[in-house]
Design goal:
Elements (H helix, E strand, L loop, with lengths): L7 H11 L13 H25 L3
Helix pairs in contact: 1-2
């Protein structure tokens, strides 16, 4: 867990990186498609965690 709360920009960049955004110096800001793909991947991770908690009955 981070010791400080990330900014909205940092969270958006992290989600974009899940969608394939590389964040290089000349890349600019992430686009809608990259953010959408990142959100889909994040949702997949959450669903996977919920599934595993159901299998092992972890609270």
């Amino acid at each position: 867990m981070p010791t400080t709360v990330p900014t909205i920009r940092e969270v958006v960049l992290q989600i974009a990186m899940l969608g394939g955004f590389l964040g290089r110096k000349g890349d600019g800001e992430p686009g809608v498609k990259t953010l959408w793909q990142g959100m889909q991947r994040l949702r997949d991770f959450v669903e996977g965690m919920e599934h595993m908690r159901g299998l092992y009955d972890v609270k």
